[in-house]
């Protein structure tokens, strides 16, 4: 038996999925807000009558290997926040109050000081519990960056990656995204992806999230090329974010060009990240560029709650700064500039 994702086509209600079992297939779980289901079947022939179908597949985190720097000498905040003019935005009164951001990742250590005073929430889709203990560290880092950029948002950690692994199933991320939609979040950060061909089912999932009024920030990928298609960043309605270093140059590992759907750049190379158990570490990868953009989107939503995902993307791109070596193929619209975006326009 194989496992498939089925997205109900227009005119097919989610409750109609129960009829699938009459074909001999087994419904494993349903995703109400996405109007989708995970189904176990011999093949997908009968499933196609219900909507778009794809066999379940793997997705991966977008972090490089641990940095060799001395972990005892890592500053609590670094150049990354200065580059985006985060403090200027805060001083102007933009902190993300009233906005909900979901970080779909490895969980989070909410006991870390960076989350002090914040409203936080956790949900583990792997065991349907509120235990989001982070045994990897990636999710604590990404959620911590969101918190630093937008300190008054509500942070929702949605755990979809298991213990000590950088891989999970597409279906597991769908369950996490569906939970985020159930929680009525405004922004979702997805610091994961895959390389290969476009999936019509995956594409439709993110369109449904976009159409629900949720901004999705995605990492652009870490192969350092413009020759490999990367998803979900390449879908037009997602905010694709590449990495720059402290010199405002594209990180050598950061994927770019049409194959990533590149929109913007943000710090992602040797950035300071909150560490599980306390303290800080350095991390690199487009995984860490993306949450800067998620936090930026939250600041815009906090400024004007009526802004749509398209409005937010347009504002971030319009306010971006173009570095000295700028070209749109490698840098998209440029590097996020929070003060210019929020105040200068």
Q: In sequence order, what are the helices and strands, one letter per element?
A: EEEEEHHEEHEEHEEHEEEEEEHHHH
Classification by helices and strands? alpha/beta
Low-confidence stretches: none
Approximately how much beta-strand content do the residues carry?
A: 15-25%
How are strands sequenced across the largest beta sheet?
7-8-6-10-12-14-15
Q: What best-fitting shape do the alpha-carbon axes yield?
A: globular
Q: What is the residue-averaged pLDDT?
A: 94
CATH architecture of the largest domain: 3-Layer(aba) Sandwich
| Beta strands, count | 17
The rounded distance between the terminal residues' Cα atoms is: 55 Å
Summarize the main sheet. Answer: 7 strands, parallel
CATH class descriptor name of the largest domain: Alpha Beta
Number of domains: 2
| Contiguous helical run count | 9
Kindly state the percentage of residues in helix.
25-40%
Structure description:
The chain has nine helices and 17 strands. The protein is 25% helix and 24% strand. The termini are far apart. It has helices at 79-83, 86-91, 138-149, 170-182, 200-211, 286-303, 309-318, 328-331, 338-344; strands at 2-8, 26-31, 36-41, 51-55, 58-61, 100-105, 120-124, 154-159, 167-169, 187-190, 192-195, 215-219, 230-231, 239-244, 262-267, 271-274, 280-283. Strands 7-8-6-10-12-14-15 form a seven-stranded parallel sheet, with helices on both faces. It has two domains: 2-55, Alpha-Beta Plaits (2-Layer Sandwich); 58-344, Rossmann fold (3-Layer(aba) Sandwich). A hairpin with a 4-residue loop joins strand 2 (26-31) and strand 3. Helix 3 (138-149) runs parallel beside helix 6 and helix 6 (286-303) crosses helix 7. The chain is of the alpha/beta class and 345 residues long.
């Amino acid at each position: 038996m194989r496992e498939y994702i089925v997205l109900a086509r227009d005119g097919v209600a989610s409750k109609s999925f129960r009829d699938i079992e009459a074909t001999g297939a087994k419904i494993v779980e349903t995703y109400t807000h996405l109007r989708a289901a995970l189904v176990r079947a011999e093949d997908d022939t009968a499933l196609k009558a219900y909507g778009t179908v794809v066999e379940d597949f793997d997705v991966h985190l977008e972090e490089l290997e641990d940095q060799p720097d001395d972990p005892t000498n890592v500053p609590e905040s670094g150049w990354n926040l200065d580059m985006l003019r985060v403090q200027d935005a805060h001083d102007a009164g933009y902190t993300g109050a009233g906005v909900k951001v979901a970080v779909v990742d490895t969980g989070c250590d909410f006991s870390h000081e960076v989350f002090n005073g914040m409203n936080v929430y956790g949900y583990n889709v792997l065991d349907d519990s509120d235990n989001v203990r982070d045994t990897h560290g990636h999710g604590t880092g990404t959620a911590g960056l969101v918190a630093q950029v937008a300190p008054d948002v509500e942070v929702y950690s949605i755990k979809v990656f298991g213990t000590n692994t950088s891989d999970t199933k597409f279906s597991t991320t769908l369950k996490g995204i569906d939970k985020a939609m159930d929680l009525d979040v405004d922004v979702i950060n997805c610091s994961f992806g895959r390389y290969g061909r476009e999936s019509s089912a995956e594409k439709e999932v993110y369109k449904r999230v976009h159409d629900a009024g949720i901004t999705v920030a995605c990492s652009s990928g870490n192969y350092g090329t413009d020759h490999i298609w990367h998803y979900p960043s390449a879908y037009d309605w997602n905010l694709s974010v590449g990495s720059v270093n402290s010199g405002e140059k594209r990180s050598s590992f950061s994927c770019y060009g049409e194959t990533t759907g590149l929109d913007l750049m943000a710090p992602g190379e040797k950035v300071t990240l909150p560490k599980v158990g306390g303290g800080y570490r350095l991390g690199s990868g487009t995984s860490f560029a993306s949450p800067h953009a998620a936090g930026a989107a939250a600041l815009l939503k906090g400024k004007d709650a009526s802004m749509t995902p398209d409005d937010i993307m347009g504002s971030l791109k319009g306010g971006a700064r173009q570095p000295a070596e700028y070209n749109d193929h490698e840098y998209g619209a440029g590097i996020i500039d929070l003060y210019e975006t929020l105040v200068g326009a």
